[in-house]
TrEMBL record:
Keywords attached to this entry: Membrane, Transmembrane, Transmembrane helix
Ranges where the Inositolphosphotransferase Aur1/Ipt1 domain occurs: 180-357
Chief localization: membrane
A Pfam family matched in the record: DUF5933
Origin species: Streptomyces milbemycinicus
Listed name of the protein: Phosphatase PAP2 family protein
Membrane-traversing stretches: 12-36, 48-68, 75-93, 105-122, 129-145, 199-217, 229-248, 320-341, 375-393, 399-420
Amino acid sequence: MTFAALREPRAILWATAGVVTLGFLITLEIAARHYGLPGPMTTQAQEVIFAPKSGPLLYASMALMMVVLTWRQRFIALGAAIGIDIVFVLVRWAVGAKITEGHPFGNGALWVMLGYGVIAVTRRTGRERALLLKGVGLGLLLVAGRKTGDTWLLITSKTRPTVLDEYVATADHALGNPSWLVGRIVRATDPIGTHLLDWVYIQLAVAAVVVSLYQLRHVAVERRFPSHYLVRTFLVIGLVGPAIYMIFPVVGPIFAYGPGAYGTGGLHWAVADLWPDTPPPLNPPHPVPYDDITPRNCMPSLHTAWATAIFIHSRKGPRILRFAGTFWLIATLTATLGFGYHYGVDLIAGVVFTLTIEAALRSHERGWDRSGLQLVAYGTAVFAALLVSYRYLPMEMAKYPWVFGPLLIVAMTSVIYAYVRTTKLWEQKTAPAPQPEPQPELV
């Protein structure tokens, strides 16, 4: 690539984004090492050899990378990944290596993505090199986003010794404590309902890849990526969301009012053993000390945010994709509440958070104008107002639920309405003008 090409605005943007991303990963690596644990770069490098934490995620990431390949190249890449995984399984079996956590497969997908990165640098030139590098980068970014999120969660648990769950649980009285209600319903459906919801909750990134593959289905033919697609929103949510965790640390009902989960928390850390049978009492809230292991990852609910993004981007797909997007959103909301991972007010904040980010990304791609600025500013203002009210008005919200409950719903609905109305106007402006039908010539 020539120096003149590097001076083009889009090339400069990509180069800047790459430098910022690398610096961010290095910073998180240093922060994780400070607490005696490997960071995102180390854990990703380990999966070249050791059993990966999520095999399905690695194969989903490889599927994203393959959108730039021809069908013949896709079959070769998939066959190579499966073959490499078989070799890894046989070697582990031969040396007696036992997998205590993670999946026995997925290394092959990572090797194939790295291999195509080498091919792009050594065997491709010009636009073909750039396209293949974008494909590889897209796949690796999805994996890096997961690793970065894990490190962010570690940092929240180490740097925020107290949590604000009492404030959020008190504010949640305005909505009728939905986590307690849904928790009892989900428990009544055990084991079928809980297993299904757990699978949906864990495989959210795979669902995002399915929608993204539909959006990127023409990349191999058109030799370019669309201006906006789901992965971009997904990654920005994962990048910005944990910063809110640092401002508003919350662990969730099953931790603050129950026995905990995934080997963290415990009744000795809980305010009381109440979830999901007994709603929390209405007392003046205060910060509560908690362990240094459990992530403070509730406010906002990023699972709700990601599921909302999947729903939005599935709307222009075929009927089965729209149905799947709706199912994933409903099931994710049910799981976040029913497993005691989130309060109801977390979900409202998550929806507003996603719509604001989505509006900002779409405005950036189409060019900022008055409507885009107003939409992003309004979403940001509503999101900030929600956080402030949860922190400083929880008792008032709990004492007057018939006032604040509807207000919370109206605030969220107003952002939804503003987003839908504004984006429809954008689409009408960018739609091609209808061409007049040819008229028969007069003889």
